[in-house]
Design a protein that fits this description.
Blueprint lengths: L1 E6 L6 H17 L3 E6 L34 H7 L12 H6 L3 E4 L10 H8 L9 H8 L1 H11 L6 E5 L5 H7 L4 E5 L8 E2 L4 H11 L5 E6 L3 E9 L2 E2 L3 E5 L6 H5 L4 E4 L6 H17 L5 E9 L4 E7 L9 H8 L4 H17 L3
Parallel strand pairs: 1-2, 1-3
Antiparallel strand pairs: 4-7, 5-6, 5-7, 8-9, 8-10, 8-12, 10-11, 12-13
């Protein structure tokens, strides 16, 4: 098949996405597919060949990419593109996507998981991997996802929806309880997340989160072990425990070598794994997600699991969490990528 692996984009998870996309593209090429890597924001402005030959480009247009210690400077990314128009779709992106049999979405965060690119591809009749635009958008919005958890009886930390400005911060500091977690509703990779323990830290946290937008949620802080469970098709996979080599699992500990230790299958009881797996599967189905997702949990000191969020386009580097879980049940990285392609084509044909 001719496959466009769409990555990069213009989100705070841009670097992570490019690493995911590179791994996916090379894996699919190893399986015999004519896969190419396309940066959704930069497009093909550096491609000098004929578009009709692009699926035969050496190494599928993959380059040497890695995740920096800090999130990308998106304004610098904007300035680096020749086309300075406001579009988030780079040169020839939709054209080359329309030439493909399927688009593998290796995007993360805004511009990828929020449903907008899925809707654009729907409008031009191009099949893509993962969930549809409505389900993607609902899952990406932490406030909407929390409402689904509450409605479905999925255990999650007590929370509150916040829409605020700088002028509201003094009042909120008085009203809100600490310790807590403050999260931008559409963030990812722990960007736009603050974990204040004191009122003064809360004041600074509310100020910091405003850099990413004026809509956030506040959760009661639950301390515990960090675990994640993926759904693939109609089943859940073995859990992974993430042990950060710092107080919290933040952007740097997630993506830098030595930042965290990941154990799969997680050293938990079978009952704990099954409870988290059933919650992940229930949330996946409630939101109408397709093919695969990954739900994150905290396991508190009493062994009680609390659902944090669901990811519709989780990290897909060869060593990411979902590939680790798949490997634990005998599914290789390349096979996982191909399963996602085939199951997604089936989902699109069925209108899911």
């Amino acid at each position: 098949m001719k496959i466009v692996v769409l990555a990069g984009g213009l989100s705070t998870e841009r670097h992570v996405s490019l690493v995911s996309g590179t791994g996916i593209c090379r894996a699919l090429r190893e399986k015999g597919h004519r896969a190419i890597l396309v940066d959704m924001f930069m497009g093909l402005e550096n491609y000098k060949g004929d578009l009709t030959d692009i699926f035969d480009a050496p190494d599928g247009l993959c380059g040497d990419v890695h995740v920096e210690r800090t999130a990308p400077d998106l304004e610098a990314v904007r300035r680096s593109r020749a086309d300075q128009s406001p579009t988030v779709l780079g040169k020839d992106v939709l054209t080359v996507c329309a030439m493909a049999d399927v688009v593998f979405l290796a995007l993360h965060g805004a511009c990828g998981e929020d449903g907008r690119i899925q809707a654009a591809l729907d409008l031009v009749g191009v099949p893509y991997t993962g969930s549809n635009y409505v389900s993607s958008g609902m899952a990406m919005d932490k406030s909407i996802a929390k409402q689904f958890m509450d409605f479905e009886g999925i255990r999650t930390a007590p929370w509150r929806d916040l829409r605020y400005s700088e002028a509201d911060i003094p009042r909120l500091v008085e009203e809100l309880e600490v310790p807590c977690a403050v999260k931008i509703v559409n963030g990812g990779s722990s960007i736009g997340v603050e974990l204040p323990d004191t009122k003064e830290e809360l004041r600074q946290a509310l100020h910091n989160v405003l850099r990413y937008g004026d809509h956030a949620i506040l959760e009661k802080k639950i301390r515990g072990r960090e675990l994640t469970v993926a759904v693939l098709g109609d089943r859940y996979l073995p859990a992974v425990e993430i042990i950060p080599n710092a107080e919290y699992f933040n952007y740097e500990t997630k993506y830098q070598a030595g930042g965290a230790t990941e154990v799969c299958p997680a050293p938990i009881t079978d009952a704990q794994w099954r409870e988290m797996g059933e919650m992940a599967l229930k949330l996946h189905r409630a939101l109408g997600l397709s093919v695969y997702s990954r739900s994150d949990f905290l396991l508190d000191a009493n062994g009680i699991a609390w659902c944090l969020e669901v990811n519709t386009l989780p990290g897909m580097t060869p060593t990411s969490l979902v590939p680790q879980e798949a490997a634990a049940v005998g599914i290789s990285y390349a096979d996982l990528c191909e399963i996602i392609v085939n199951e997604s084509l089936k989902a699109r044909r069925e209108g899911r």
